[in-house]
């Protein structure tokens, strides 16, 4: 098998990697030139044939999504670039935006040509100040060089890109919450259908894609479908719903490892390899107790599930929600899963937008139950109660508008199933993992 050659992170260590001159010297914007010489539908079909699946969490086929736009629509059609990146443990979009912004801008321009859009909005996580400054400068460079604005590269194609700073909430990353926020409203996700491709930003057809997805598009144009499909995991012939997991992927590794990092590898690497080879092993000579496979909303792998392939299908085979953002967070064997789960639930409860009762109430109740367990006041029945609450919320059981609730439920379901013994032991011991002062506050 040929040695894997990173493409998405290839330029990040170059001096001044964010500058247009260097990007062009490395062959930048030739993919756009190639795309502009093709019919929009041919670009869409190329992306569809590559098998590129969205890198933002849901793993939906990018080309298929683009092809859902209404045919012969008079416009406007919008592209929203999802750069909200708020899933805990996830920082790959930030690296792409800060170190190689033109790779993203080229992907945006190609995507806009394919979907017949003349306006793209980059919805950027508010806290990413450096990304904002770097992207802002790169966009200005593009306008000055005729790569954005009117008559791009002399082809008659027109595109405006606007950079919008987010509203500082996790729910702004959900695609319809993002659209509401861009429209100047509170980021309350919309009931779907209609999906954004039919009715999105300003009620017009809209495509929402993640930063990494759009960066992949640039390389599919330059290197081709065969190259993209030469990496990753083909579909399982026994699973008709498996579309395969092709192409390169950025994996973030953090938590209790010696070397937190972001690495680019073909889709389908094992969690164990990420931790031991790329993350430098579990810190302090300890062992991994649990591993988050793709942001906390995906749930947990237990220590004996570390040989799970991190492709779009792998985590689901061991009871996790999916690959998510491929952000691996390692939890060592000295850490209490009760505390870990409490933190997950507290985050989700804080970030729930509150529209759906099962999510608003469920996330709050799960946090309260875990608080009770953590403070030594838990009962054994609490474990089943936690599971029952978690099992009743989310798009999957059909009780909520968006997937935040599923992402809140999965860590709970996984933790109480895979680490039940630890929860029982904790409750039986009656111990508390908080200080007496915190305990006093928790009681009130
Ligand atoms: C609560 C919640 C938060 C999300 N946050 C993000 C995010 O920060 N970035 C992102 O790209 N997708 C996020 N998503 C997924 C988006 O809704 C959407 O699927 C994605 O942007 C589509 O892009 P893709 O097809 O290129 O992956 C989130 C979903 C949910 C339910
Ligand atoms: S599931 Fe939760 S976050 Fe999503 S819309 Fe409903 S209340 Fe809001």
How does this structure look, described?
- By secondary structure, the protein is α/β, with parallel strands linked by helices.
- It folds into three domains: 20-231, NADH-ubiquinone oxidoreductase 51kDa subunit (Rossmann fold, 3-Layer(aba) Sandwich), CATH 3.40.50; 250-332, Ubiquitin-like (UB roll) (Roll), CATH 3.10.20; 337-443, de novo design (two linked rop proteins), CATH 1.20.1440.230.
- It is built from 18 helices and twelve strands.
- Helix 2 packs parallel to helix 6 (101-115), helix 6 (101-115) crosses helix 9 and helix 13 packs antiparallel against helix 16.
- 51% of the residues are buried.
- It binds flavin mononucleotide and iron/sulfur cluster.
Q: What is the arithmetic mean of pLDDT?
A: 96
For this structure, what is the CATH homologous superfamily of the largest domain? NADH-ubiquinone oxidoreductase 51kDa subunit
The number of helical runs is: 18
CATH architecture of the largest domain: 3-Layer(aba) Sandwich
The portion of residues assigned to helices is 40-55%
Question: Under CATH, the topology of the largest domain is which?
Answer: Rossmann fold
Structural class: alpha/beta
Give, in spatial order, the strands making up the sheet with the most strands: 3-4-2-1-5
Shape: globular
Number of strands: 12
Bound molecules: flavin mononucleotide, iron/sulfur cluster
Output the radius of gyration.
22 Å
Low-pLDDT runs: none
SS strand fraction: 5-15%
- Largest pleated sheet: 5 strands, mixed
Q: What's the CATH C level of the largest domain?
A: Alpha Beta
Number of discrete domains: 3
Instruction: Return the string of H and E elements.
Output: HHHHEHHEHEEHEHHEEEEHEEHEHHHHHH
